[in-house]
Specification:
Helix content is about 20%, strand content about 35%. It has about 70 residues and is α+β, with helices and mostly antiparallel strands. The protein has one domain: Roll (SH3 type barrels). Strand 4 and strand 5 form a beta hairpin. The longest helix has 10 residues.
Length: about 70
């Protein structure tokens, strides 16, 4: 496993684990980041990631992306 923040634009991974406190994990789950979901990095701008999750594009900063393990 490695953090989502290590993927580059165009790469895809499957979420295996989400770390952090309960409120952080709940917030990410509400955005669509749940275990066994595929996620694709659309773009990376200044360390922040634009991600394709299901039918949505979501921007995450690097600190949040490091909590998602693929």
């Amino acid at each position: 496993m490695m953090p989502l923040s290590m993927l580059r634009a165009g790469e895809r991974g499957t979420i295996r684990k989400i770390t952090g406190q309960d409120d952080v994990r709940q917030h990410l789950a509400e955005l669509g980041f749940v275990v066994d979901t595929d996620v694709t990095v659309v773009n990376e701008i200044a360390g922040n990631l634009i991600l394709q999750v299901r039918d949505s594009r979501i921007a995450l900063d690097k600190s949040m992306a490091t909590r998602i393990m693929i």
